[in-house]
Amino acid sequence: MARHWADFQYEIYLNGMTGAVPRLPTDLSRLEELTEQRLGPGPVGYVAGSAGDGSTARANRAALERRRIVPRMLRDVRERDLSVEVLGRYLPAPVALAPVGVLSIMHPGAEPAAARAAAAQGVPFILSSASSTPMEEVAAAMGDAERWFQLYWSKDREVARSFLSRARAAGFSVLVVTLDTPLLAWRPRDLDRAYLPFLHGVGTANYFTDPAFLAGLAKPVQEDPNAAVMHFVNLFSDPGKTWPDLAFLREHWDGPIVLKGVLHPDDARLAADAGMDGVVVSNHGGRQVAGSVAAADALPRVAAAAGDRLAVLFDSGVRSGDDVFKALALGARAVLLGRPYVYGLGLDGQPGVEHVIRCLLAELDLTLALSGHATPATVGPADLEESAG
Q1: 257 and 276 Cβ atoms separated by less than 8 Å
Q2: Which residues are catalytic?
Q3: d(Cα 254, Cα 174) in Å, to the nearest integer?
Q4: Which residues, other chains included, contact 208 with Cβ-Cβ below 8 Å and sequence gap of 6+?
């Protein structure tokens, strides 16, 4: 029996009979402002901040808002099923939690709290290489739940190989390789506070527990933490990587591989030619290239280029159920949710993340139904109109 995510609204209203109201807003776009008020400026700036003056993050929102849904009437939407098959996996809804690093700066529960929330709702959790908790601990917190691993592709082949081996052993089923961060972008909110958690050994847990990484240190991490941090900085990413290097990943990972950060249709074709399984149309939530094309504007062209050769996923700018609907209509098979769940974590730990997931999926369920759809499979370009401005 398919889950009716929309029933969450009745749960909220019924709880209201006893005077209880939700601890967090149900309009997820309000979470950023609340987080700004309650958490420290360093951590908030790191999560909320963008490259340059923030123009790309604003463009992401504008591109989604410019597209308007055209509802259809008198269609049978009594029984709805939001489930989709993505990369050979059954998902109860077309949503996964995006990889976000250093979650301990937002809440002491960090990645395990977010991962448990995702598992409780049946939504895949994508763990960042730059997590503040080792991947094995996050996997243990999730039991058998669907989990994917995001790789920052290290300069050190042995560290990269070790990460892939550990992730596979810990039950991570899909590899998500972030391509858009060969260098850290110019991010004024972080620069103005000289705030970079990694330099304090936060977000380095996977590295500091990795045998291949530790083999490169003259002394154990605890004896010379600064040397360990500098070693991490020197090998974290590699601006010299090119398309032929993908053969290394294919050789060392036997599950699906998805390339994250694709915005040009030719890059989608190159990904398919290289034997990849999917792409994430993403500009890193506006955090990497100031002045970049909006992710939602790039999505239709990338989806057309991918055709049936690749699964097309999407992130960057998603704040609501209707944003997910629009991404599906523009060609995405599923959507990765980033900042909103991180704000939920910062404000209320695991329950905060669950709240965000349930709000998003309730709103998606209702948006689908009220637009005349009982399943994501029937949503397409004809369901949107582009407004001028």
Answers
A1: yes
A2: 284
A3: 9
A4: 201, 214, 221, 228, 232
For the whole model, what pTM was predicted?
Answer: 0.98
Other beta carbons less than 10 A from residue 196's beta carbon? 17
**CA within 13 Å, CB half, 76:** 1
Here the tokens at position 266 are 């030719």
Three-state secondary structure call for residue 64: helix
Full DSSP string of 67-118? EEE----S---SS----EEETTEEESSSEEEPP-S-GGGT-TTHHHHHHHHH
Tens digit of each residue's pLDDT, the chain (389 residues): 678 999 999 999 999 999 999 999 999 999 999 999 999 999 999 999 999 999 999 999 999 999 999 999 999 999 999 999 999 999 999 999 999 999 999 999 999 999 999 999 999 999 999 999 999 999 999 999 999 999 999 999 999 999 999 999 999 999 999 999 999 999 999 999 999 999 999 999 999 999 999 999 999 999 999 999 999 999 999 999 999 999 999 999 999 999 999 999 999 999 999 999 999 999 999 999 999 999 999 999 999 999 999 999 999 999 999 999 999 999 999 999 999 999 999 999 999 999 999 999 999 999 999 999 999 999 999 999 999 76
What is the number of residues in the chain? 389
Cα gap 262→254, rounded to integer Å: 22
